[in-house]
Amino acid sequence: MRKTVLFLLVAALHPAAAVETGHTRLRGVQPGTTATNPSAAEATEVAAVDRVEAGYWAITVEELQRARHLMRGPRGAFSVSNISPVEVLGIHARSDAERDRYAELFTKLLHDDAQRVLAWQRAGDAAMRRLFPQDKAIDFGRAPNAPALPNWYFAPGGAAP
């Protein structure tokens, strides 16, 4: 009885009892073969995907892998699942200089994205004026409880006469 209890206690506390499954990747195994290590082609494919993703964020593959590793720990529990690797690296920076570098990189990425969004919005506004010159983008006059704002406020271009 004591041996059984001791065995169960050791088994429950042994680190091998915990298995990380958050990033398990299943791959097919052909009949008659064994699934041991990924082939060289799969490793190259994964490395290529990592290089592309790291390039999106302007970081190295090693930095991307570090961010993924950090997300497997408490950071993954504390953060939203779509936090960027740059944010993860900045939060877990190992020095002030590293934190500043990631902050500048993230700020540039946000700035560039804001410029793309604004350019898209301007193109949409121009298309609206071109395709529907007499329409208002939003006609509050048709809505119940329409606001009591002057008509010029809703005119195309939004400028007062």
Automatic annotation (TrEMBL):
Give UniProt keywords alphabetically: Signal
Q: Does the keyword Signal apply?
A: yes
Q: Does the keyword Signal apply?
A: yes
What range does the record give for the signal peptide?
A: 1-18
Can you tell which superkingdom this protein's organism belongs to?
A: Bacteria
Protein name per UniProt: Integrating conjugative element protein
